[in-house]
Amino acid sequence: MQKPDEFIDLLKLLVRSPSVVGAEHAFFRVLQRELEERGAEVTWYEGLLVARGREPESVMFSAHADRHGLICTGPNEFQYAAFVAGRRSDLLGNSVSEKLMRKIVDRFHGVPVTAYEPWSGSYLGSGEIDRAYVCEYRNNLIFEVNGLDHLVAGTPVAFRDGLTVGDGILSAQLDNVLTVAHLVHLFSLGFQGTAFFSAQEESGSSWRYLLEWFRRFNGGTDRLIVVDTSPYPDRATADQQQVALRRCDANAAFHGPTTTMLEALCREHGISYGYKDAYIEELNRRAEAVGQEPQSLGSTELGRIVAASEGFVQGTTLQVPTTGYHTMEESASVESNAAFSRLLYLVARAAGAC
Question: Among 211, 53, 26, which residue's Cα sits nearest to residue 124?
Protein backbone atom coordinates (compact mmCIF):
# COMPACT_ATOMS: atom_id res chain seq x y z
CA MET A 1 0.00 0.00 0.00
CA GLN A 2 1.33 3.44 -0.91
CA LYS A 3 1.49 5.85 2.07
CA PRO A 4 0.12 3.23 4.55
CA ASP A 5 0.51 5.48 7.60
CA GLU A 6 -1.58 8.18 5.94
CA PHE A 7 -4.27 5.60 5.14
CA ILE A 8 -4.42 4.33 8.73
CA ASP A 9 -4.64 7.88 10.10
CA LEU A 10 -7.49 8.63 7.70
CA LEU A 11 -9.32 5.41 8.57
CA LYS A 12 -9.05 6.19 12.30
CA LEU A 13 -10.61 9.60 11.69
CA LEU A 14 -13.47 8.24 9.57
CA VAL A 15 -14.24 5.38 11.95
CA ARG A 16 -14.70 7.93 14.75
CA SER A 17 -17.06 10.05 12.61
CA PRO A 18 -20.68 8.80 12.95
CA SER A 19 -22.68 7.90 9.85
CA VAL A 20 -25.87 6.13 10.94
CA VAL A 21 -27.99 4.94 8.00
CA GLY A 22 -30.53 7.66 7.24
CA ALA A 23 -28.43 10.33 9.02
CA GLU A 24 -25.27 10.54 6.89
CA HIS A 25 -25.11 14.31 6.34
CA ALA A 26 -22.57 14.94 9.10
CA PHE A 27 -20.31 12.24 7.70
CA PHE A 28 -20.62 13.73 4.21
CA ARG A 29 -19.29 17.00 5.66
CA VAL A 30 -16.21 15.17 6.95
CA LEU A 31 -15.75 13.45 3.59
CA GLN A 32 -16.09 16.74 1.73
CA ARG A 33 -13.27 18.29 3.75
CA GLU A 34 -10.96 15.30 3.34
CA LEU A 35 -11.64 15.02 -0.39
CA GLU A 36 -11.21 18.72 -1.12
CA GLU A 37 -7.93 18.74 0.80
CA ARG A 38 -6.80 16.04 -1.67
CA GLY A 39 -7.75 18.07 -4.72
CA ALA A 40 -11.17 16.62 -5.56
CA GLU A 41 -14.14 18.66 -6.76
CA VAL A 42 -17.03 17.68 -4.49
CA THR A 43 -20.74 18.02 -5.28
CA TRP A 44 -23.67 17.12 -3.03
CA TYR A 45 -26.87 15.52 -4.27
CA GLU A 46 -29.72 13.99 -2.30
CA GLY A 47 -28.28 10.82 -0.81
CA LEU A 48 -25.03 11.09 -2.76
CA LEU A 49 -21.65 12.80 -2.52
CA VAL A 50 -19.70 12.93 -5.80
CA ALA A 51 -15.95 13.57 -5.91
CA ARG A 52 -14.36 14.23 -9.30
CA GLY A 53 -10.87 14.78 -10.62
CA ARG A 54 -9.69 16.18 -13.96
CA GLU A 55 -10.69 13.01 -15.87
CA PRO A 56 -14.09 12.21 -14.35
CA GLU A 57 -15.24 9.90 -17.16
CA SER A 58 -12.11 7.71 -17.10
CA VAL A 59 -13.16 5.40 -14.27
CA MET A 60 -15.95 5.42 -11.68
CA PHE A 61 -15.85 3.86 -8.21
CA SER A 62 -18.69 3.81 -5.69
CA ALA A 63 -18.86 3.06 -1.95
CA HIS A 64 -21.76 3.37 0.46
CA ALA A 65 -21.08 5.75 3.34
CA ASP A 66 -23.65 4.62 5.91
CA ARG A 67 -23.18 2.30 8.89
CA HIS A 68 -25.53 0.59 11.28
CA GLY A 69 -26.79 2.40 14.39
CA LEU A 70 -29.97 3.39 16.19
CA ILE A 71 -32.63 6.10 15.88
CA CYS A 72 -34.50 7.54 18.86
CA THR A 73 -38.24 6.86 18.32
CA GLY A 74 -39.61 7.92 21.71
CA PRO A 75 -38.67 8.53 25.39
CA ASN A 76 -35.76 6.15 26.05
CA GLU A 77 -36.85 4.12 23.04
CA PHE A 78 -34.57 3.39 20.11
CA GLN A 79 -34.95 1.30 16.99
CA TYR A 80 -32.49 -0.21 14.53
CA ALA A 81 -31.85 2.61 12.07
CA ALA A 82 -31.79 0.38 8.98
CA PHE A 83 -35.32 -0.83 9.73
CA VAL A 84 -36.60 2.71 10.26
CA ALA A 85 -34.86 4.16 7.18
CA GLY A 86 -36.15 1.27 5.08
CA ARG A 87 -39.67 1.67 6.50
CA ARG A 88 -39.59 -2.00 7.42
CA SER A 89 -42.42 -2.15 9.91
CA ASP A 90 -45.14 -4.71 10.42
CA LEU A 91 -47.61 -1.81 10.39
CA LEU A 92 -46.85 -1.27 6.71
CA GLY A 93 -46.89 -4.92 5.72
CA ASN A 94 -43.14 -4.95 5.09
CA SER A 95 -41.99 -6.49 8.32
CA VAL A 96 -38.51 -7.53 9.32
CA SER A 97 -38.31 -11.29 9.66
CA GLU A 98 -38.48 -12.80 13.13
CA LYS A 99 -35.27 -14.68 12.32
CA LEU A 100 -33.38 -11.46 11.56
CA MET A 101 -34.66 -9.69 14.69
CA ARG A 102 -33.68 -12.63 16.89
CA LYS A 103 -30.24 -12.65 15.28
CA ILE A 104 -29.66 -8.98 16.12
CA VAL A 105 -31.40 -8.76 19.49
CA ASP A 106 -28.44 -9.91 21.62
CA ARG A 107 -25.65 -8.58 19.43
CA PHE A 108 -25.22 -5.12 20.96
CA HIS A 109 -25.84 -5.53 24.71
CA GLY A 110 -23.44 -3.28 26.61
CA VAL A 111 -22.19 -1.49 23.49
CA PRO A 112 -21.36 2.20 24.12
CA VAL A 113 -23.17 4.65 21.87
CA THR A 114 -22.99 8.35 20.96
CA ALA A 115 -25.88 10.60 19.95
CA TYR A 116 -25.30 13.40 17.45
CA GLU A 117 -27.14 16.16 15.63
CA PRO A 118 -27.78 14.69 12.16
CA TRP A 119 -26.83 17.71 10.04
CA SER A 120 -23.83 19.21 11.84
CA GLY A 121 -22.61 16.12 13.67
CA SER A 122 -22.61 17.97 17.01
CA TYR A 123 -22.24 15.72 20.04
CA LEU A 124 -25.50 15.23 21.99
CA GLY A 125 -24.43 12.75 24.65
CA SER A 126 -23.27 9.20 25.21
CA GLY A 127 -24.71 6.08 26.76
CA GLU A 128 -24.71 2.30 26.74
CA ILE A 129 -27.22 -0.17 25.33
CA ASP A 130 -28.97 -1.78 28.29
CA ARG A 131 -31.22 -4.25 26.49
CA ALA A 132 -33.04 -5.02 23.28
CA TYR A 133 -36.32 -6.85 22.84
CA VAL A 134 -38.99 -7.56 20.24
CA CYS A 135 -42.12 -5.55 21.00
CA GLU A 136 -45.02 -8.03 20.78
CA TYR A 137 -47.52 -5.31 19.84
CA ARG A 138 -45.50 -3.76 17.00
CA ASN A 139 -43.49 -6.83 16.02
CA ASN A 140 -40.42 -4.62 15.93
CA LEU A 141 -37.01 -4.54 17.60
CA ILE A 142 -36.73 -1.99 20.45
CA PHE A 143 -33.54 -0.89 22.26
CA GLU A 144 -33.23 0.74 25.67
CA VAL A 145 -30.12 2.86 26.33
CA ASN A 146 -28.76 4.11 29.65
CA GLY A 147 -27.73 7.77 29.65
CA LEU A 148 -29.74 9.12 26.71
CA ASP A 149 -33.14 9.76 28.28
CA HIS A 150 -32.96 13.42 27.19
CA LEU A 151 -33.01 12.72 23.44
CA VAL A 152 -35.99 13.55 21.25
CA ALA A 153 -37.38 11.31 18.52
CA GLY A 154 -35.44 11.44 15.29
CA THR A 155 -31.98 11.71 16.88
CA PRO A 156 -29.42 9.29 15.41
CA VAL A 157 -27.32 7.24 17.82
CA ALA A 158 -24.06 5.74 16.55
CA PHE A 159 -22.24 2.76 17.99
CA ARG A 160 -19.15 4.35 19.54
CA ASP A 161 -16.21 3.01 17.61
CA GLY A 162 -12.46 3.19 17.22
CA LEU A 163 -9.99 1.42 14.96
CA THR A 164 -7.87 -1.36 16.46
CA VAL A 165 -4.64 -2.33 14.68
CA GLY A 166 -2.65 -5.37 15.79
CA ASP A 167 -1.15 -8.64 14.56
CA GLY A 168 -1.71 -7.62 10.96
CA ILE A 169 -5.46 -7.08 11.48
CA LEU A 170 -7.68 -3.98 11.30
CA SER A 171 -10.82 -4.13 13.46
CA ALA A 172 -13.83 -1.82 13.86
CA GLN A 173 -17.32 -1.52 12.37
CA LEU A 174 -15.64 -1.63 8.95
CA ASP A 175 -18.70 -1.95 6.71
CA ASN A 176 -18.35 0.27 4.82
CA VAL A 177 -16.06 2.98 6.20
CA LEU A 178 -13.08 0.82 5.17
CA THR A 179 -13.54 1.14 1.41
CA VAL A 180 -14.74 4.74 1.79
CA ALA A 181 -11.30 5.43 3.28
CA HIS A 182 -9.65 3.62 0.37
CA LEU A 183 -11.40 5.86 -2.18
CA VAL A 184 -10.54 9.04 -0.30
CA HIS A 185 -6.93 7.85 0.01
CA LEU A 186 -6.86 7.14 -3.73
CA PHE A 187 -7.13 10.89 -4.33
CA SER A 188 -3.95 11.27 -2.25
CA LEU A 189 -2.27 9.01 -4.81
CA GLY A 190 -3.26 11.24 -7.71
CA PHE A 191 -6.66 9.81 -8.68
CA GLN A 192 -8.45 11.94 -11.29
CA GLY A 193 -11.59 9.88 -11.95
CA THR A 194 -14.95 9.87 -10.13
CA ALA A 195 -15.86 8.46 -6.72
CA PHE A 196 -19.45 8.19 -5.50
CA PHE A 197 -20.36 7.97 -1.81
CA SER A 198 -23.96 6.87 -1.33
CA ALA A 199 -26.36 6.98 1.61
CA GLN A 200 -28.78 4.35 2.97
CA GLU A 201 -27.26 1.20 1.46
CA GLU A 202 -27.92 -0.72 4.68
CA SER A 203 -31.64 -0.02 4.25
CA GLY A 204 -31.55 -1.05 0.59
CA SER A 205 -32.08 2.46 -0.83
CA SER A 206 -28.67 3.69 -2.02
CA TRP A 207 -29.07 2.42 -5.57
CA ARG A 208 -31.88 4.94 -6.16
CA TYR A 209 -29.62 7.91 -5.44
CA LEU A 210 -26.88 6.53 -7.68
CA LEU A 211 -29.25 5.73 -10.54
CA GLU A 212 -30.83 9.18 -10.28
CA TRP A 213 -27.37 10.74 -10.79
CA PHE A 214 -26.84 8.78 -14.01
CA ARG A 215 -30.37 9.53 -15.21
CA ARG A 216 -29.89 13.22 -14.37
CA PHE A 217 -27.12 13.48 -16.97
CA ASN A 218 -28.61 10.84 -19.31
CA GLY A 219 -25.39 8.87 -19.37
CA GLY A 220 -25.20 5.21 -18.41
CA THR A 221 -22.07 3.12 -17.95
CA ASP A 222 -21.02 -0.50 -18.04
CA ARG A 223 -17.81 0.05 -16.04
CA LEU A 224 -18.96 1.20 -12.60
CA ILE A 225 -16.90 -0.53 -9.88
CA VAL A 226 -18.69 -0.75 -6.52
CA VAL A 227 -16.36 -1.34 -3.55
CA ASP A 228 -17.40 -2.82 -0.22
CA THR A 229 -16.50 -5.38 2.44
CA SER A 230 -17.36 -9.06 1.95
CA PRO A 231 -18.09 -11.30 4.96
CA TYR A 232 -16.54 -14.73 5.54
CA PRO A 233 -17.15 -17.04 8.52
CA ASP A 234 -13.61 -17.08 9.91
CA ARG A 235 -10.12 -15.68 9.43
CA ALA A 236 -8.76 -18.77 7.65
CA THR A 237 -11.53 -18.64 5.03
CA ALA A 238 -11.18 -14.88 4.53
CA ASP A 239 -7.43 -15.17 4.10
CA GLN A 240 -7.76 -17.59 1.19
CA GLN A 241 -8.03 -14.49 -1.02
CA GLN A 242 -6.72 -10.94 -0.76
CA VAL A 243 -9.69 -9.49 -2.65
CA ALA A 244 -13.17 -10.78 -3.43
CA LEU A 245 -14.70 -10.49 -6.91
CA ARG A 246 -18.23 -11.31 -8.12
CA ARG A 247 -19.83 -12.31 -11.38
CA CYS A 248 -23.34 -11.79 -10.00
CA ASP A 249 -25.51 -11.50 -6.92
CA ALA A 250 -29.11 -12.52 -6.19
CA ASN A 251 -30.42 -9.55 -8.22
CA ALA A 252 -28.45 -9.55 -11.49
CA ALA A 253 -25.42 -10.68 -13.46
CA PHE A 254 -22.55 -8.19 -13.59
CA HIS A 255 -20.63 -6.84 -16.59
CA GLY A 256 -18.38 -9.68 -17.73
CA PRO A 257 -15.59 -7.67 -19.42
CA THR A 258 -15.17 -5.38 -16.40
CA THR A 259 -15.01 -8.35 -14.04
CA THR A 260 -12.51 -10.04 -16.35
CA MET A 261 -10.39 -6.88 -16.37
CA LEU A 262 -10.12 -6.99 -12.57
CA GLU A 263 -9.23 -10.67 -12.65
CA ALA A 264 -6.55 -10.06 -15.30
CA LEU A 265 -4.96 -7.30 -13.21
CA CYS A 266 -4.96 -9.61 -10.18
CA ARG A 267 -3.22 -12.35 -12.17
CA GLU A 268 -0.70 -9.98 -13.72
CA HIS A 269 0.30 -8.40 -10.40
CA GLY A 270 0.17 -11.43 -8.10
CA ILE A 271 -2.95 -10.45 -6.15
CA SER A 272 -4.88 -13.49 -4.92
CA TYR A 273 -8.63 -13.36 -5.52
CA GLY A 274 -11.75 -15.44 -5.02
CA TYR A 275 -15.22 -15.22 -6.54
CA LYS A 276 -17.78 -14.77 -3.75
CA ASP A 277 -20.65 -16.09 -5.86
CA ALA A 278 -18.66 -19.25 -6.67
CA TYR A 279 -17.84 -19.67 -2.97
CA ILE A 280 -21.54 -19.47 -2.00
CA GLU A 281 -22.55 -21.83 -4.81
CA GLU A 282 -20.04 -24.39 -3.56
CA LEU A 283 -21.40 -24.06 -0.01
CA ASN A 284 -24.91 -24.59 -1.38
CA ARG A 285 -23.87 -27.73 -3.25
CA ARG A 286 -22.53 -29.15 0.01
CA ALA A 287 -25.65 -28.05 1.90
CA GLU A 288 -27.92 -29.66 -0.68
CA ALA A 289 -26.02 -32.93 -0.37
CA VAL A 290 -26.92 -33.15 3.32
CA GLY A 291 -30.42 -31.70 3.04
CA GLN A 292 -29.66 -28.24 4.44
CA GLU A 293 -31.20 -24.95 3.32
CA PRO A 294 -29.10 -23.06 0.71
CA GLN A 295 -27.76 -19.54 1.24
CA SER A 296 -28.71 -16.57 -0.90
CA LEU A 297 -26.09 -15.19 -3.27
CA GLY A 298 -26.58 -11.92 -1.40
CA SER A 299 -27.88 -8.53 -2.44
CA THR A 300 -25.38 -5.83 -3.40
CA GLU A 301 -25.73 -2.17 -4.29
CA LEU A 302 -24.57 -2.94 -7.84
CA GLY A 303 -27.03 -5.80 -8.29
CA ARG A 304 -29.91 -3.58 -7.23
CA ILE A 305 -28.99 -0.78 -9.63
CA VAL A 306 -28.36 -3.17 -12.55
CA ALA A 307 -31.77 -4.79 -12.05
CA ALA A 308 -33.64 -1.51 -11.52
CA SER A 309 -32.00 0.26 -14.47
CA GLU A 310 -32.33 -2.78 -16.77
CA GLY A 311 -28.62 -2.53 -17.57
CA PHE A 312 -28.45 1.24 -18.08
CA VAL A 313 -25.88 1.19 -15.27
CA GLN A 314 -23.62 -1.86 -15.20
CA GLY A 315 -20.21 -2.84 -13.88
CA THR A 316 -18.75 -5.12 -11.23
CA THR A 317 -17.80 -5.25 -7.56
CA LEU A 318 -14.48 -5.32 -5.74
CA GLN A 319 -14.53 -6.24 -2.05
CA VAL A 320 -12.26 -6.62 0.98
CA PRO A 321 -12.69 -10.02 2.72
CA THR A 322 -13.72 -9.57 6.37
CA THR A 323 -14.92 -11.52 9.39
CA GLY A 324 -17.34 -10.44 12.13
CA TYR A 325 -19.88 -9.00 9.67
CA HIS A 326 -22.06 -6.17 11.05
CA THR A 327 -20.40 -6.19 14.46
CA MET A 328 -18.09 -3.78 16.23
CA GLU A 329 -15.24 -6.26 15.72
CA GLU A 330 -15.43 -6.73 11.96
CA SER A 331 -11.86 -7.39 10.87
CA ALA A 332 -9.75 -7.34 7.72
CA SER A 333 -6.08 -8.13 7.24
CA VAL A 334 -3.52 -5.43 6.54
CA GLU A 335 -2.26 -7.62 3.69
CA SER A 336 -5.70 -7.72 2.09
CA ASN A 337 -6.05 -3.94 2.39
CA ALA A 338 -2.65 -3.39 0.80
CA ALA A 339 -3.66 -5.59 -2.14
CA PHE A 340 -7.04 -3.86 -2.42
CA SER A 341 -5.40 -0.42 -2.45
CA ARG A 342 -2.90 -1.56 -5.05
CA LEU A 343 -5.65 -2.95 -7.29
CA LEU A 344 -7.64 0.29 -7.10
CA TYR A 345 -4.53 2.18 -8.19
CA LEU A 346 -3.85 -0.28 -11.03
CA VAL A 347 -7.42 0.06 -12.33
CA ALA A 348 -7.15 3.86 -12.20
CA ARG A 349 -3.76 3.86 -13.90
CA ALA A 350 -4.96 1.55 -16.67
CA ALA A 351 -7.85 3.98 -17.30
CA GLY A 352 -5.56 7.02 -17.36
CA ALA A 353 -6.93 8.32 -14.07
CA CYS A 354 -3.68 8.20 -12.07
Answer: 26
